[in-house]
Amino acid sequence: MDAGKTxxxxxxxxxxxxxxxxxxxxxxxxxxxxxxxxxxxxxxxSAVLAEIEEIKQEKGRVEEEILVLMExxxxxxxxxxxxxxxxxxRETQGKQEEAALQEKLRAVEADLALVxxxxxxxxxxxxxxxxxxxxxxxxxxxxxxxxxxxRSRTSAxxxx
Length: 160
Description:
0% strand; rod-shaped
């Protein structure tokens, strides 16, 4: 989009330059036509007419260049508008996707909070059960040692 705007600005600048050139050519033509009334011989008159014809052709070329630049500007302007419309569409889609992802994130965070709460409750319940077992165990009884890998004897036996 920026490249298109840069090309459009360059085309406008070229058009202004060519319009100034056209003004110079028109002034040159007026001056040359004024010389028609000052010439004294047919040969000079023919030379001035030939010069005027060259100036007319140059004017025609400059006007054609201006028209080409104007057409180019119209195409570039349309391209820029299309690009801006596509950008706005993509931006809207991006915002919609972002909103959907934000909603999913909120749902996942809510689930995570629920799981953490359940985990904390389970950990407190396990701690209470362990404390109760320890209180109920005879004072001289041997306490079970934790097994490698964090499994107790009962859970190791159940797993086997």
